[in-house]
């Protein structure tokens, strides 16, 4: 009985599955029909054993000696990651970063559609970014209810991010992507992912230091630890 229970996919694996999907989309655009595990692993920046372990969550999908069908694996990953459904997102804080995100067309092609933009600055409210009008921040609950947004993206200053998050959650949003440099507190049942480019840069700086032998205390990270920071 226990064999039929679905395996829980760890969050770090989900993030890597999304990277494989992006790599496969690029290969498909280039007209490729198959890819070896070595090539896919290298393009995704992981080791082949890690790739095979990650893909084992999808069930059988590769053919020994042939590799993976680009279309087949892409379809399976899309299905598992829920990318077939369009996900409506609201974006709060339409400043420099928020405007750049709202104006980026690449999210829609991956199934993430901005459906509502909100800002508290009267100079920004009423302007259009990426073809959408910016609504006053007070309308957050109305916009979430009207659009059925399921993901809230926060690009406000850190001081107000928790309050914005609380309002998104109270309005029924269960997935938050936070760019503000603050750890948000959310009730059980709500998922928060934090994006922090400075952490990524710090990791790169450390790996660079380690490569040239000037890392001060930790001289080597275990291979699996290196894997988990990617
Ligand atoms: N995660 C990263 O790697 C990364 C990179 C750059 C910036 N940031 C963070 O992203 C956030 C935005 O940065 P920015 O440079 O775009 O700032 P910005 O000042 O240009 O934009 C912030 C916007 O939020 C709006 N705002 C303020 N309070 C609000 C509220 N209560 N409700 C709705 N809107 C509100 C402001 O009017 C402004 O338009 C900051 O927290 C910054 O630290 C993160």
Assign a percent range to the helix content.
Answer: 40-55%
Ligands bound, unique: nicotinamide-adenine-dinucleotide
Question: Which parts are unreliable, with pLDDT below 50 for 5 consecutive residues or more?
Answer: none
The CATH class label of the largest domain is Alpha Beta
Give the CATH H-level superfamily of the largest domain: NAD(P)-binding Rossmann-like Domain
Share of β-strand residues: 15-25%
CATH topology of the largest domain: Rossmann fold
Pfam families: CoA_binding, Put_DNA-bind_N
DNA-binding region: 19-58
InterPro entries: CoA-bd, NAD(P)-bd_dom_sf, Rex_actinobacterial-type, Rex_DNA-bd_C_dom, Tscrpt_rep_Rex, WH-like_DNA-bd_sf, WH_DNA-bd_sf
Family: Belongs to the transcriptional regulatory Rex family.
Describe this structure in words.
- The protein is 42% helix and 17% strand.
- With 230 residues, the chain is an alpha/beta fold.
- The chain has three domains: 2-81, Orthogonal Bundle (Arc Repressor Mutant, subunit A); 87-195, NAD(P)-binding Rossmann-like Domain (Rossmann fold, 3-Layer(aba) Sandwich), CATH 3.40.50; 198-229.
- The strands form two sheets. The chain has a seven-stranded mixed sheet. A three-stranded antiparallel sheet has the order 1-3-2.
- Helix 1 packs across helix 2, helix 1 packs antiparallel against helix 4 (70-81) and helix 2 packs across helix 3.
- The radius of gyration is 20 Å and the shape is globular.
- The protein binds nicotinamide-adenine-dinucleotide (NAD).
- The site of nicotinamide-adenine-dinucleotide (NAD) has 25 residues, from helix 5, strand 5 and helix 7.
